[in-house]
Amino acid sequence: MLILLLIFLPMALAPVSWLLGRRSKSLRDGFVGFAGLLELVLAALAVRSGTAASVPKLCTMGFSFVMDGFRCLYTVIFACMWALTLLFSPDYFAHHHNRNRYYCFQLLTLGATMGVFLAADLYTAFVFFEIMSFTSFVWVIQEETAGAIRAAKTYLAVAVIGGLVALMGLFLLWNTLGTLTISELFPTAQAAGKLPVLYTAGVCILFGFGAKAGMFPLHIWLPKAHPVAPAPASALLSGALTKTGVWGILVLSCNLFRDDPAWGTLILCLGAVTMLLGAVLALFSIDLKRTLACSSMSQIGFILTGVGMLGLLGEENALAARGVVLHMGNHSVFKLVLFLCAGTVYRNLHRLDLNEIRGFGRKKPLLKLCFLIGAAGIAGVPLLSGYVSKTLLHESIVEGAAHYGWTLTLVEWVFLFSGGLTAAYMTKLYVAIFVEKHPTRQTEFDGMKRYLNRPAALALALAAPPILCGILPNQTMEWAANLGVDFLHGAPLAHAMHYFSLENLKGAAISLAIGAAVYLGIVRPWMRRDGNYVNRWPEKLDLEELVYRPLLLRLLPGVFGAVSALFGENRLTAPLCRGLMKLSARLAALFGENRITAPVAGATLRTAKTLSHAVSDSTDALVLGLRQTVLRQSPPENEDPVTASFAYRLGDRLDRAARRRGQRGKQTRGIRFYRSWRTRQQTGRRIRGNLSFGLLMLALGLCAVLGWLLLHV
Fold first, then answer.
1. What are 529's strand-pairing partners?
2. In this predicted model, which residue has the larger pLDDT, 578 or 2?
3. Domain boundaries, the chain
4. Which of 30, 313, 502, 533 has a 20 to 30 Å separation from 430 between CA atoms?
């Protein structure tokens, strides 16, 4: 019962908070804060009492939930994160609009996120995963600025397409194994053998969960959504919602593809690229929240690298399993602290550019201390929790290098170099905000004594202490690792870990030395100009603008527009119908004088006419139906003068060539070419302006699955 309350109670309280907000803002703020604390209490109680729960027959298949050590750990972490962000939010939103909407969807997303983590089967996880995606969309679009609307569209597009691809993978998995229950995936997959369809299903599901995790190349939403979302929402997007994607990848890697080196290699490669690219993007950024967003992408890469090592190490995965469990939790806490600090800066200055917020924190000891703890923790400085989890992940790679040779040695250096970049960009942020002086506003910044109210200061002060658990890792962090490692099917440790041995400190020292060299040799001399920070990342290297938008908004509409134009003009069916009519007419002429065959010929002719008209009109009916539904007429767009002029000139050249050859006709080649070009342009505009690509992907995916089932069942 407590498990169900964890999920459905916040969803039930969400509309209540909205109604209260219409009567009293202070009453709503108190109610939402109480809801967050109540969720934390329920999480603590469920850890001790709840083991499993189900809701039969809901959504046909019913929902099932389970509580184990891993889920206990992260249920409490997420409940703490929501409680602290809700405590911080009233001060942050003191002068914002649409607060009722924000708090309502905050509670809805809380319930959905709990539903994902507590799901006992992939069907339940998928349903709550999609609910979470749509409710968190409101966080991104909260400010309703042009940048927020564009980022929210990107977030929604990635969520919808990723969800539909994952759904196709679930169809394949259900058809192949006959179960989506997580605990049954491994034995049924072992019995089925290494079927290619299992890898196809796995890649499809990986696509959906990887998109939410911010895994390369599906990370495009993450650097766009965080800077425009409110800071408390950014903390949850980074610290909690990305972990639902990692959770899905863990379910695949530790159950369906347990101890599978091929799958482990795939995840390891994706993790290494995500880890390095995120760190590079963070280093180049000069926006505080964008830097933290790219940092989240990099840290997810660290986690995925550990997940890949689970598959490569097989039954010797003790270090990797513990590193993954701890770094997931560490990253959630790091980003909670750092985004709350960023929210404090934005709440006072309404700016995020490093050149405009420079020097803000020089005389603000609480903010300075909390940011320093978070930055040092995520950089892997010894005596902090980040050092412990990164050491475990690093040592798992070293252990794998003994079996797989130079390839994993290369991954190890990518790991150490990415850790060095983490130290460099965190040093860049800390120095800019807390050490350097603003050229014109420093006196104003130093005079801001009441930059936080008491509840917000309490939330910030409570968020940072868990990072200090690295001082006594064997007594604190190993307990948490042992609690969650069973979910990953991790092996027991062969010997006690000596975290502060010279061999383990060596890895951290190498990363910190790389970070110092990058900061002093690249950031200070090259990424600054005349004392100001400069973003030297080429704007053209934006994967969304370079690949995804042209693919989805130009290439696909062009292809489908051409197909629609081809069928809409009956260019395929018209010759067939004309041939059928001519054949029928000749048969009628041949047998028409014969009184016996004449009725038969007449009936044949009428049948042929009916069939011909039916075939001829079918495509028109289809196109008309599409135009009246999903392809409804949109407002006319202005024709591109450059392409129109080019098409007209090309058509005119064709006309001249035809006249020189003595060819005459009512419709010249130029006119036909121009009309064909106009038809394709107009059809493409209709699709580009009105067709939901999510529904299009769903239709294509369902057709593909149906075709596969027809061939293999």
1. 532
2. 2
3. 317-537, 561-712
4. 502
